[in-house]
UniProtKB/TrEMBL annotation, chain A:
Ranges of residues in domain ABC transmembrane type-1: 70-264
One Pfam family linked to the record: BPD_transp_1
Domain of life: Bacteria
Keywords of the record: Cell membrane, Membrane, Transmembrane, Transmembrane helix, Transport
Protein name (database record): Carbohydrate ABC transporter membrane protein 2 (CUT1 family)
Example GO biological process: transmembrane transport
Primary location group: membrane
SUPFAM superfamilies: MetI-like (SSF161098)
Membrane topology type: Multi-pass membrane protein
Entry similarity comment: Belongs to the binding-protein-dependent transport system permease family.
UniProtKB/TrEMBL annotation, chain B:
Entry-linked InterPro entries: Bact_solute-bd_prot1, SBP
Name of the protein in its database record: ABC-type glycerol-3-phosphate transport system substrate-binding protein
Entry keyword annotation includes Signal: yes
Superkingdom of this protein's organism: Bacteria
Amino acid sequence: MKFRSTRNKILLYFGIAVFVFIILVPIYWLFLTALTPRTQLFSVPPNYFPDFTLQNFRNLIDQVPFLAYLTNSILFAFGAIILSVILSFLAAYGFARIEVPGSNFLLFALVLTMAIPEIVTVVPLFQVLRNLNMIDTIRGLVMVMGSVLVPFSVWVLVTFVKRVPVEMEEAAIVDGANLPQVLFYIVIPAMKPSLVTVTIINFINAWNNLLYPLVFSSSVRAKTLTVSITEIFQARTPYGRPWELISTLGVTMVVPMIILVFVAQRGIVSGLTSGSLD
Amino acid sequence: MLKRKSKFLLTLVVLSILLVSVNMVVFAAEELIVGVGGWAVEPTKQALEELNFTEKTGIEVTVTTRPGSPPEFISQMTSSILGGQTPYDVIDLEDDAAINFSRSGWLVDLDPIYDDQFWDDWTPGMLEMVETWNRHEGELFRIPHNYETQYFFYRKDILEEKGLEVPQTWEEMVEVGKELTTDEMYAVSDGLAKGGYIGVYVSYLTQQAGGNPFDFGPALRESLQFIHDMIYEHEIFPSSALNKDFDQVNNDFVNDRVAMMRMWPYFFDYQESQEDWYSEDKVGVALPPKGPESRDTFVASWGWAIPNTSDKIDEAKTFIEFMTSVENAPELAKMSTWFLSPRHSIMEEIDVEESRLASNLKKYSDAGVISSRPFHSNFRQASSIVEELASAYLTNQISLDEVMERGKEQMQALEE
């Protein structure tokens, strides 16, 4: 019995090790390429411990308007999460607390929009943004991305709002609280893990989104880091591929995500697993 | 509690104001937007500045980077053009994108810019390329500004050391190749990975065998057989090349692992940038070894085009005229090889001794070995068919007969 238990543990750890290895190898390769001098990139046999350099980062900054793209990415991602989380929270509260005929159908219809492929919506959205004079602007991108993130966020948050005991809100109202006070002092604190989770997930989605910035921006005033990957793809010549610059850009995109997930790890885990009151 | 909430609210408000204000300024959209590949931004800006474009025409220009990878570029252009706009008033277009866009009816007819006399400056080979790749239903939709020729590079020092002559035919390439191949070095190589690499080499050899790869005829069969023999029978060509792109093969060349190869002109810059390795007596450029029919090498080209959804079509035409005129073309070619072509005005004025690329372009042009790229009106899909089947054959997954049979079927389906 003990032997079987030990064997199962070994198998489990071996499986986890293989899984982690498979996950980490591409990330290791990404970092390795970003830190390898271009001249050593295609060495045969591969050099797993080359002369590490930061020159690729300098070259990247020279090659694209990096700071402008980074600023745009930050504004785009933060704008999208602010818009989507605020709207979604209010909508979710409405769906969870206000009984109106057809609200379930409305929620279903909202969730159904998640099934529509992004590419299908691009041309109509382009026309909407053009009419609003928002092509090639961050606020246009934020509006589109925020609206894309809302259905998922509402869908997740409705469940969590329903888990907040309505009696707590009623008690606060009896004590003289108005609706904003109920939301800020009762509902939001109770939903903190789920709000953190939705915020992080939305941030990751917006940060990594390529399609909307690619299609709705055409200049440095609205292009994001993801778009620069399509530009750096043939940075030096129409035929070569600057793998070291592509990887360096990948690293600059991935590192903020890794930091964010580490920082918010506890919130994400509790939000995903329990959703309970704290 | 209240304090924390206030801070939270304040942060939200500040971020929202910041976000909205960042783009409240309405940017003037009066400038002509020119979209070029990332590598061409600086040369284009420099050209406009040094030739005083704005002073002469009164047109302000913003040169911006367009996506380099075709799928993203097509996504961007499709949505904006269908939405009645365009991110660029002038685009520097490669061959296959130009074919796609022209067939979609997205490009402005550029014929009115020039009269017939302008074309006297172009060589017969270039005119053939213009007719095939830049004209559709009688309209000129792109004016090329360069002529990206493929060259045959060889290790001059090693051939001299072994007392070998530069091969002049496919047969000689095999003979010389056997002498050159060692444990450390293969005689010949090329980028044969799928995705825009293997198709180039197969097209290059098929043309030398007297055909067009998209016909799936005897010439394609002969070229594929030749590559297969070089890899497996004569063992002078590495099978690992089937997974390599052009960068990797260039790297093999400058690391003494390859002695001869066909390559695009960017290899001139690449080899010279290897300062520890490069010397003038190390790398030679010869005419391509002759195949069963010819020793042709085909060109790719980039050129200026105007989307018909631009609201600055007249200004865009002025820009193209400025960048391609007989007066300015030689000046541009002197500034950057990105604007180099064998147009008479350029070849007469440029000092070919100063530039290895220019001198070799002249050598190839004078020898009459430059020809137009094998054409198909559905170039991307047709190339994909050729690449898939060629790769399957060269990795011994299917026979040559199967390549021909399946290729003909798939091309017929594509035509239909």
